[in-house]
From TrEMBL:
Keywords from the UniProt entry: Disulfide bond, FAD, Flavoprotein, NAD, Oxidoreductase, Redox-active center
Keyword Nucleus found: no
Membership in a protein family: Belongs to the class-II pyridine nucleotide-disulfide oxidoreductase family.
KW Repressor (keyword) present: no
Residues in the signal sequence: none
Binding partners and assembly: Homodimer.
Coiled-coil intervals, chain numbering: none
The name this protein goes by in its record: Alkyl hydroperoxide reductase subunit F
Transmembrane segments: none
Organism: Sporosarcina contaminans
Domain FAD/NAD(P)-binding: 2-287
Cofactor(s), names only, from the UniProt record: FAD
Length: 302
């Protein structure tokens, strides 16, 4: 069996695998797509000490760093079941069952898409999902935020300090964000809120140039010219496959303590699949290191 088996090959998993391998223990990493979300990212400018890089380049760097160590890398493999017996068992889609004394779950998350024409086409060309990451790219420009929940309204408040103007488009008749956030939003002069707005299309040529929505009350179709659209309708953790094997919160995030431990002894978790406060590369890597050191500590004690 492995001493540490990491499930997920994004920043969190890569970091966990390296920290484990550096202890000289038997380490494996299973990933359905090594690199994770950063493979879909254009510029990365907030990975501290690296002024600017591109997602696919950082993913290649991660893989190279992991391969510097004695780690079994099982790429293009998807885990479908976890069971805690004497050891922890991970069953893969291909039917194989991997056994390990400890497991670190780092299966990440994915942004929920609106699913309208233009969204995929203009991804990284005006369509963005992360205000902390991409906000500065839209300095002085007009943008829209789709989604009026907490994350949408927080994004709009944040972006209003950087961009020229923010239009918030909410599908329902009112915003769902906490009232303090709504008050803060409404106090900002460069924000317009449009409710009952069903996004129909993100338009553009090479880059985004506007958004079209239907007013759900009048039925009229409207178009706004702008340079960017932030989609903020939810971040979904890749944890469905766990079922009830590990405790998760109502958003599906794996509940971890400050050491990255889950409710199951020997099972740890890190990164965007957990209930961590913020979802960023640098935070995922830190939590991967934490979970890995905790797994090592667990092995020493058991
Ligand atoms: P992920 O990167 O999601 O990796 C999850 C890994 O688990 C993948 O390898 C995946 O294939 C694998 N996996 C999932 N399910 C299974 C399964 N069942 N079995 C096996 N493997 C599985 N953050 C920043 O800090 N700066 C930025 O500029 C930035 N820009 C972003 C731009 C975009 C478009 C997106 C989508 C995200 C951006 N982020 C950015 C966020 C950042 O990418 C994430 O916070 C980070 O990748 C999370 O790392 P992770 O390892 O927890 O998960």
């Amino acid at each position: 069996p492995y001493d540490v088996l990491v499930v997920g090959g994004g920043p969190a998993g890569a970091s966990a695998a390296i920290y484990a391998a550096r202890k000289g223990i038997r380490t494996g990493i299973v990933a359905d797509r090594f690199g994770g979300q950063i493979l879909d990212t254009a510029a990365i400018e907030n990975f501290i000490s690296v002024n600017r890089t591109e997602g696919p380049k950082l993913a290649a760097n991660l893989e190279e760093h992991v391969k510097d160590y004695n780690v079994d890398v099982m790429n293009l493999q998807t885990a479908k079941r976890l069971e805690k017996k004497d050891l922890v068992e991970i069953e893969l889609e291909n039917g194989a069952v991997l056994k390990s004394k400890t497991v670190i779950l780092s299966t990440g998350a994915r942004w929920r898409n609106i699913g309208v024409p233009g969204e995929a086409e203009f991804r990284n060309k005006g369509v963005a999902y992360c205000p902390h990451c991409d906000g500065p790219l839209f300095e002085g420009k007009d943008i829209a935020v789709v989604g009026g929940g907490n994350s949408g309204v927080e994004a709009a408040i944040d972006l209003a300090g950087i961009v020229k103007h923010v239009t918030v488009l909410e599908y329902n008749s009112e915003l769902k964000a906490d009232s303090v956030l709504q008050e803060r939003l409404r106090s900002l002069k460069n924000v317009t809120v449009i409710t009952n707005a069903q996004t129909k299309e993100i338009t553009g040529t090479n880059n985004v140039n506007g958004i079209t929505y239907t007013d759900r009350v009048s039925g009229d179709e409207k178009h706004i010219e702008l340079a960017g659209v932030f989609v903020q309708i939810g971040l979904v953790p890749n944890t469905d496959w766990l079922g009830n094997a590990v405790e998760r919160n109502k958003f599906g995030e794996i509940i971890v303590d400050k050491r990255g431990a889950t409710n199951v002894p020997g099972v740890f978790a890190a990164g965007d699949c957990t209930d961590s406060a913020y979802k960023q590369i640098i935070i995922s890597m830190g939590s991967g290191a934490t979970a890995s050191l905790s797994a090592f500590d667990y092995l020493v004690r058991n």
